[in-house]
Amino acid sequence: MSFIFEYISKKYAWYVDNLQKIVFIVALFFIFSYLLKLPYINIFVRFFALLPHIVAWIAILLLFKPRKESILKVGFFIFAVGYLFTLVRISLVMEIIGQVGFFIILTYLIMSVREIREK
Questions:
Q1: Longest dimension (CA), the chain
Q2: Could you give the dihedral angle defined by the CA atoms of residues 17, 30, 43 and 60, in that order, rounded to the nearest 10 degrees?
Q3: d(CA 50, CA 96)
Q4: Residues 34 and 67: beta-carbon distance below 8 Å
Q5: What is d(CA 107, CA 58) in angstroms, rounded to the nearest whole number?
Q6: DSSP state, 39?
Q7: Tens digit of pLDDT for each residue in 35-84?
Q8: Three-state SS for 36?
Q9: Residue 114 and residue 50: Cα distance in Å, rounded?
Q10: What residue spans of 36-90 are helical by DSSP H?
């Protein structure tokens, strides 16, 4: 029972420490999504549908600086979830989850190439 309390208290402390970053990223995402729905700017959404998500992902990488291994684990987990949606043939969710998983694994590869170049 103390393990559960310790785990929850660590997570709560992490959220308290990073609440400003989380609110900034959510606000950035909503503002960017709103701006892309304005007339004449919404033309870009047709070509770059995941643009708000890409901006939010860049903000997450800059503010939280996650480890490469955790990025890869999350990417594979999202691909596994996408595969389950493929089995039940929910195409819209499958397409979005597949794109996000691919983008996360591509981020891991870019970070790995940068590390290899530095050696």
A1: 56
A2: 10
A3: 9
A4: no
A5: 10
A6: T
A7: 888 887 777 777 777 788 888 888 988 898 888 888 889 988 988 888 88
A8: coil
A9: 24
A10: 43-47, 51-64, 68-87
What span, in angstroms and rounded, lies between the C-alpha atoms of 56 and 34? 14
| Integer Cα distance of 56 and 77 in angstroms | 19
Q: Can you read off the two tokens belonging to residue 15?
A: 């959220």
In the numeric block, which tokens belong to residue 77? 């987990």
Q: Which two tokens mark 69?
A: 């291994």
Cα separations in angstroms, 69 against 16, 53, 81, 86, 109:
24, 21, 18, 26, 11
Q: What are phi and psi of 42, to 5 degrees?
A: -70, -5
Structure tokens at 102: 């691919």
- The per-residue pLDDT for range 92-116, each reduced to its tens digit, is 778 778 888 888 888 898 888 877 8
